[in-house]
Amino acid sequence: MTAVEQDRNISSSFAKGLAVLAVFDAAAPSMTLAEIARRTGQDRATARRGALTLVQAGYLRQDGRMLSLTPRVLALAGGFLQANQFGRRVQPVLNRHARQMEIEVTLAMLDQGRVLLLAQSTVDHGHITYGFTAGSHIPLAHTSLGRMLLAGLPEEEAAAVLAETGIPCHTSQSLTDPAAILERVAQAREQGYCLTDSEFEAGITGYAVPVSRPGQTPIVAGCSAPRGRQPQADAERLLRGLQLCAAELRQAEAVDHL
Amino acid sequence: MTAVEQDRNISSSFAKGLAVLAVFDAAAPSMTLAEIARRTGQDRATARRGALTLVQAGYLRQDGRMLSLTPRVLALAGGFLQANQFGRRVQPVLNRHARQMEIEVTLAMLDQGRVLLLAQSTVDHGHITYGFTAGSHIPLAHTSLGRMLLAGLPEEEAAAVLAETGIPCHTSQSLTDPAAILERVAQAREQGYCLTDSEFEAGITGYAVPVSRPGQTPIVAGCSAPRGRQPQADAERLLRGLQLCAAELRQAEAVDHL
DNA sequence: CGGGTCTGTGCGAATGCTGCACACAATGTT
DNA sequence: AACATTGTGTGCAGCATTCGCACAGACCCG
């Protein structure tokens, strides 16, 4: 902008516009122009142009003064999902195992210091639905998915990621000391699975296992359930199920080049 | 650009960049720079800057000379899905009815002359999986979803949309005369449901019913299955199931402001 | 080996963007 | 009711950015 000459191969106005699109998330599903400007750190006029461009392109809609995403953004994700054959190679596997385990199964990866949900089984069970969907972000430090993902990284890298993101506190049981969390991560790396209990939602236990092969971008599968009467037995059963699911995904090479 | 003065509130370089992101679809999951330039109608240098910006932002990845979408694009869709509580209000309903009907149920809307799939249940049945996911596009003219969507539009508007998009031909049974298709659309409007047989995939029958209330943006639910022994009975059963599903979605106001 | 296609880059020109400042509308606070 | 606050639309001048072309080299293919 001012001092350093920007890379001439990068379009700064495009990048700013993308930032506008990306600012819409679960916490702020619909915002006013001024709010967008604040959250993107852009000048109001700039944010306005970005937003209006998005409206014209059909990705944003304007209700009075509120702006919100339109369903068309799904088409962007659709390109990715179809390219990787998620509908054929990933979703059916998740569904099958989910049904067998009678619990929702989630596939996830790292994204900007958070856990990005890639896919989720859509099986009708009696239990609670948490309302997360593909494309949702959940925290890294206090979920089994997050810790298992960190475990897929080299140790220093995991520490770096964790340090960058900061550690919120969701429940009274959330670990707050980075070292303690890294301890659990290391444990997960050795064991080949990860359990967390009540650190993100009270009373809920999370289970996760790796899917990607060592060295690849970490991908994990997991599930979560209210803590039951026999935690041991539950854990064994669910982890076994997740391992089977992960093995099948690995074998199908369904998630190799993400 | 040249003749008309562009609206000063629209950022043209941002719009061009978005076009780059949007060219990636099922038909072209990974492309070379030159191909992107061709398909977007942009100068190669322009397309290149757009693509590189997307790479820097993490939405595109570069493998050698091929560019492809990264999972991060899912996060964009995630914002929409969470904002509209799809995970809580839509998906469970679809899943439940799908399980009861023992068939996949799809929710869809219009998008640029095509059918945009918004959500899809996936029961774990023995049948084929078509591999479509939320965010996929399917044709308008020869699917029950598409015709039912057209039926949700005023008659002239439906005709206009249909005229704009052109009419491909997928199977020997595909109707090719716009008037004949509009005939079926009108029929669907009157009946409140739509059936198609073998017009998109040979031997497959499609079923669709409206979900949105009249006057709103059309949203429909549908399913498809190989033609069975008792087409009549199948149709009755499936349409009844879809109607129930649609009614429940309507009542939950799950899709009111899309 | 040669034609075709693809990529990276440099550069001048002009255009498109930026950010500020002002006027006004809407909201909500005392 | 009047005020304070927050949001919105617009104009403008200057400058950084982006555009599009053209060239050189890499790569692929028959």
UniProtKB/TrEMBL annotation, chains A, B:
Pfam families: HTH_IclR (PF09339), IclR_C (PF01614). It comes from Leisingera aquaemixtae. SUPFAM superfamilies: GAF domain-like, Winged helix' DNA-binding domain. Residues 11-71 form the HTH iclR-type domain. PANTHER family: HELIX-TURN-HELIX TRANSCRIPTIONAL REGULATOR, ICLR FAMILY, TRANSCRIPTIONAL REGULATOR. SMART domains: HTH_ICLR. Keywords: DNA-binding, Transcription, Transcription regulation. This is Pca regulon regulatory protein. Residues 72-255 form the IclR-ED domain. GO terms for biological process: negative regulation of DNA-templated transcription. InterPro entries: GAF-like_dom_sf, HTH_MetabolicPath_Reg, Tscrpt_reg_IclR_C, Tscrpt_reg_IclR_N, WH-like_DNA-bd_sf, WH_DNA-bd_sf. GO terms for molecular function: DNA binding; DNA-binding transcription factor activity.
